[in-house]
Amino acid sequence: MSLLTPDLIQRIRSARNILFLTGAGISSESGIPTFRGEGGYWKKFKAEELATPEAFANHPEVVWEWYDYRRKICSEAKPNDGHLTIANWQSFSKTVNLITQNVDGLHPRAGSKNLLEIHGNIFRARCTVCKEKYTLDEDGINQSGLKFCPACESLLRPDIVWFGEGYDNRLLTKAWEQSKEAHIVFAVGTSANVSVPANLALTAIRNGALGIEINPETTSLTPSVQLHFGGKSGEILPEIFKEVFGDMVLK
Q: Largest alpha-carbon pair distance within the chain?
């Protein structure tokens, strides 16, 4: 049984701009926990108690220990068929953009381009003084514990948007532009509880985009989309891709 009607297949196939918005749900299918919500404790802390500027100012060693632990989990995880399908889609369509809330690096590892990581990346750090950014593995500063800037020797922090912090205005401006230009918007594995990603999807829909949500549960975004698929992105996205592009296979 097809997921899409012939009219929808043609609409997606001919769309000049497609936007994917992804959240924690797509990464949970690769075994990465959300670190939030019920049971989301690390030692005696909840994420909301560690991912803040205040926590880092008071206990930087504890915050770095938590991020070292999380980074190990992310490095051992593998992109699933949801990640791979989006990357493959980008190689078959003219303009396919990707905006993710996730910091785990699975999208770039899957091969995605045109990617905006609006919440940062757990494999990067930035200096608290000179603001220089580093890739922990590539720049050889991936040791456990506190990390210091090779340029000015000041303390490094994870290159993550923490609770109480604002987004990178440059990235956010580009994200709004992409949402306004989208003809199709896929909201994949996002709870829609974070206001900016949800509003990006709503902006696309209000500007005429076809809204497609893939999530095992309904969300606050569900009433605004034209299609909701209740299931795993790693199962549904490959099926949609096959219906749109025929017998192309995942890379």
A: 60
CB atoms within 10 A of CB 157: 19
> Alpha-carbon distance 44 to 101, whole Å?
25
Give the span between the Cα atoms of 184 and 19, in whole angstroms: 6
Could you tell me if 232 and 216 are in contact, meaning their C-beta atoms sit under 8 angstroms apart?
A: yes
What's the predicted TM-score (pTM) here? 0.93
- Residues with active-site annotation: 119
Rounded to an integer, the average pLDDT of 173-177 is: 98
- Strands (DSSP E) contained in the chain are 18-22, 41-42, 45-46, 96-100, 115-117, 120-127, 133-135, 156-160, 184-188, 210-214, 227-229
Q: What is the pLDDT of residues 181-231, one digit of tens each?
A: 999 999 999 987 778 989 999 999 999 999 999 999 999 999 999 999 999
Predicted local distance difference test score (pLDDT) of residue 40: 55
Could you read off the pLDDT of 127-143 as tens digits, one per residue?
Answer: 999 999 999 999 999 99
DSSP 3-state assignment of 186? strand
Closest CA to 134 of 145, 120, 143, 123: 123
Q: Distance of alpha carbon 193 from its chain centroid, rounded?
A: 14
d(CA 186, CA 184): 7
Distance CA 221, CA 202 (A): 8
